[in-house]
Design brief:
Blueprint lengths: L8 E6 L6 H14 L9 E4 L9 H4 L14 H6 L8 E3 L7 H6 L4 E4 L2 E3 L3 E6 L2 E6 L5 H4 L13 H4 L5 H8 L7 E4 L12 H7 L1 H8 L6 H10 L3 E4 L6 E6 L6 H7 L5 H4 L21 E6 L12 E6 L24 E3 L1 H10 L23 H16 L35 H10 L10 H5 L8 H4 L1
Parallel strand pairs: 1-2, 2-3, 3-5, 7-8, 8-9, 9-11
Antiparallel strand pairs: 1-12, 4-5, 6-7, 6-13, 10-11
The structure holds zinc ion (ZN).
Keywords: Hydrolase, Iron, Manganese, Metal-binding, mRNA processing, Nucleus, Zinc
Family: Belongs to the lariat debranching enzyme family.
Pfam family, one: DBR1
Length: 464
C-alpha cells in the first residue's frame, strides 16, 4: 500500500476542463506512469473552471456558448453513472458552465460521484490541506450585484450568471488563517508581472493591450491573493501555461509587491495600483507567507500535455501537525484523506448568511447582498457555534450525498436549442443548510415537490 502521509500530496492540476473528462482521466493514467505512479495513487485532481457539468441537452442551453459551438461533452456519463471518476476531482466554475447546475450547488457539492464543486466561493480541507476557490470570472458591471439570475435565463442572465460577486469575495476576505492552495478561473490581475511577462506580452499582444487598458485579469482575485497569500495559486481561462512567483515584503500586500518590481514596462507602470505610504492593509492578511507560487494552465487537449496538465507531489504544509488540522486527518480504507468542510469557512458562511440575497424566482426581485460589514466578532461567535454543533459532533466530513435528480441525457431526444430546463432544488444544498441550522435561501416550493412525482423539479422556471 502506498503511504501518503509521509510522501506529501500527489496532485494533478488542469487549466480549463471544457467537458473533456474522458481525455483528462485517460491522460492522467499516462502522465502518472511517467512518474512511476498509477492513477489510483493520485490524491486529488483539480480543474480550474470551464468544467461544463452538462447533465443533458437542456443544461447545455444554460451555458454561454454560441449554439453551433455547444457540445454535450463527457460529464453526463459521470452524472448518470455510466462512467466513474477514478480520482477525487475538485472543480471551480469558469465562464463556460451549466450555470443552472452550479447555482443549485451555490455552497458547493457533489456534481457527480467523486467530483466536488467548491461553490461560488468555498474552502474545503483534504487532510492537512486547506483549499479555497472562487468560481466565475470578474466583470465590473456585475461585481457589486446580488445573484439575480434565475431560470429561464435570457440573453443577459446566461452571461451574468457566471460573473464573480463581491459578496462571495468578501466572505473569503473574512478568512484569518492560512490557505495552502487557492483557485480562480481568471488570473489575479497583474500576476503576469511576477513571471516572464516580456515573452507573455510578445506572444499575446492583445493581452498587453488589455493590460494597458487596465482590463486584464481579475482585481477581486488579486485582492484575494494579497489577503490569502496561499502557497499555491492555480488558474485557467487564458489558455496558456504561465508560472510566476509573487513575493510579499514586510507583511505588505500585492500592491506593494508590484511597486517593488523593477522590470515593469514603463507604459504599464502608469496603470498599476498605487500604495499611499501611510496606508496599512485594512485587515491583517490571513497568512504571513512571503511568497505565492502561481501557475496557470491551458485547456485540455492543447499540445504538449504539460501545457494543460501538471502532475506534482506537494510537500505537506507546515501546519499539518497543528491541533487545528486534527479533525481533518481521518483516512479512508484506501489510505486516502477525504474532503471535509472547513470550520472557519462554515463560521463565515453562517455569519454572512443574513446578507445573502438571491432573486425571487417569479418576480426576479432581489435585494443587495453584503458581507463586508460583518464584524470579526460575529464570525467568532458563529465559530463557537460551529465548534459545538459540527466539529465536536464529528460532522465535518462532507457526506457522500450525491443523487441524480435532473433527467439524464438520452440520445436521440429532441430538444429545442432555445428551451430552458426546470429549476431543480438540490437536496445537497438543503442538507448543507440543515447542517448550519439556518434557513435555506435556495429552497423552491413547487407542485412537483408536493406531489413527490418525477423528482423535485420546480415548475417555476416554466411558468414564466
Ligand atoms: Zn477555457
Amino acid at each position: 500500500m502506498v503511504t501518503f502521509g509521509d510522501t506529501g500530496l500527489k496532485v494533478a492540476v488542469v487549466g480549463c476542463g471544457h467537458g473533456m473528462l474522458d481525455t483528462i482521466y485517460a491522460t492522467l493514467e499516462v502522465e502518472c506512469a511517467t512518474k512511476g505512479w498509477a492513477q489510483i495513487d493520485l490524491d486529488l485532481l483539480i480543474i480550474c473552471g470551464d468544467f461544463q457539468a452538462v447533465r443533458n441537452e437542456l443544461d447545455l442551453n444554460c451555458m454561454s456558448v454560441p449554439k453551433h459551438y455547444r457540445k454535450l461533452g463527457d460529464f453526463h456519463k459521470y452524472y448518470s453513472g455510466a462512467a466513474q471518476a477514478p480520482v477525487l476531482t475538485l472543480v471551480i466554475g469558469g465562464n463556460h458552465e451549466a450555470s443552472n447546475y452550479h447555482f443549485e450547488l451555490y455552497h458547493g457539492g457533489w456534481l457527480a460521484p467523486n467530483i466536488y464543486y467548491l461553490g461560488a466561493a468555498g474552502v474545503v480541507r483534504y487532510g492537512p490541506w486547506r483549499i479555497a476557490g472562487v468560481s466565475g470570472i470578474y466583470n465590473t458591471r456585475s461585481y457589486g450585484k446580488p445573484h439575480g439570475e434565475r431560470l429561464p435565463y435570457d440573453r443577459d442572465s446566461v452571461r451574468s450568471a457566471y460573473h464573480v460577486r463581491e459578496y462571495d469575495v468578501q466572505r473569503l476576505l473574512h478568512l484569518r488563517s492560512p490557505v495552502d492552495i487557492a483557485l480562480s478561473h481568471d488570473w489575479p490581475a497583474w500576476v503576469e508581472l511576477f513571471g516572464d511577462h516580456d515573452d507573455f506580452y510578445k506572444t499575446k499582444p492583445h493581452f498587453f493591450a488589455s493590460a494597458l487598458a487596465d482590463r486584464l485579469g481579475s482585481k477581486p482575485a488579486a485582492e484575494l491573493l494579497s489577503h490569502l497569500r496561499p502557497t499555491y495559486w492555480f488558474s485557467g481561462h487564458m489558455h496558456t501555461r504561465f508560472a510566476a512567483t509573487v513575493n510579499f515584503h514586510d507583511g505588505l500586500g500585492m500592491e506593494d509587491a508590484l511597486q517593488r518590481l523593477d522590470n515593469v514596462p514603463e507604459k504599464l507602470r502608469a496603470v498599476l495600483p498605487r500604495v499611499p505610504r501611510s496606508k496599512k492593509p485594512p485587515t491583517p492578511p490571513a497568512s504571513t507567507a512571503t511568497k505565492t507560487e502561481f501557475l496557470a494552465l491551458d485547456k485540455v487537449g492543447s499540445n504538449p500535455t504539460f501545457q494543460w496538465l501538471e502532475v506534482r507531489n506537494l510537500d505537506h504544509p507546515p501546519h499539518a501537525d497543528s491541533p487545528d488540522a486534527a479533525p481533518y486527518l481521518d483516512r479512508t480504507e484506501a489510505g486516502k484523506y477525504s474532503l471535509h468542510y472547513d470550520e472557519e469557512w462554515l463560521a463565515v458562511t453562517r455569519a454572512c448568511a443574513p446578507g445573502l440575497n438571491i432573486a425571487d424566482p417569479v418576480t426576479l426581485v432581489v435585494a443587495p447582498s453584503t458581507a463586508r460589514k460583518v464584524p470579526a466578532a460575529s464570525v467568532d461567535k458563529h465559530r463557537r457555534w460551529v465548534k459545538a454543533n459540527i466539529v465536536d459532533k464529528k460532522l465535518l466530513q462532507i457526506p457522500f450525498n450525491f443523487a441524480p435528480h435532473a433527467p439524464v441525457y438520452s440520445p436521440g431526444s429532441e430538444v429545442d436549442q432555445n428551451q430552458q430546463p426546470l429549476e431543480y432544488p438540490n437536496q445537497q444544498t438543503a442538507q448543507f443548510y440543515d447542517l448550519l441550522q439556518i434557513p435555506n435561501r435556495f429552497a423552491v416550493s413547487s407542485p412537483a415537490d408536493a406531489s413527490g412525482e418525477g423528482g423535485s423539479a420546480s415548475e417555476v422556471g416554466m411558468d414564466r
